[in-house]
Specification:
alpha+beta; about 140 residues; Aminopeptidase; globular
């Protein structure tokens, strides 16, 4: 299995569905809240199984020429613990380097801060709180 961008409307629909199911639905987020104004300019990452079902997804956009931001990283519940999130992040970091970014930032939910620390990210401060209860930490990683 290889990480790649979604290529068809059907793949994008499954990609967004996984983002919604993992990142928004458990907290009562409305359908559509898994998207933002950066979608068209962003780089999207998708990892699917042999049947085309998404196992992991993520997205990268540039905040500035030297700073990329990762958002919406999600791994299907049944696929966790197999390294798929790590593969998505490696892909997005390579894209950021290719775009000339010197650093990546992201907002990590409390439960996954350690995952990102293992990938070389450092907590830079508090991040947003979603749905009034989902606390995040702002994280940073230089790309050198």
């Amino acid at each position: 299995m290889q990480v790649r961008p979604p290529q068809t409307d059907a793949e994008f629909a499954r990609y967004y569905d996984l983002r919604y199911r993992v990142l928004r639905a458990p907290w009562g987020g409305e359908p559509g809240s898994e998207r933002d104004e950066q979608e068209d300019a962003a780089d999207h990452a998708l990892l699917v199984d042999d049947a085309g079902n998404p196992l992991a997804v993520g997205r990268l956009h540039l905040n500035a020429p030297e700073e990329a931001q990762v958002r919406y990283v999600a791994v299907a519940e049944e696929a966790r613990g197999r390294g798929y999130g790590r593969q998505i992040m490696a892909y997005l970091e390579a894209v950021a380097r290719g775009r000339g970014a010197a650093a990546i930032v992201l907002n990590a939910r409390e439960g996954v801060v350690r995952f990102y620390e293992k990938l070389g990210y450092q907590v830079a401060g508090p991040g947003p709180t979603l749905f009034g209860t989902v606390k995040h930490s702002r994280m940073h990683k230089p790309l050198k």
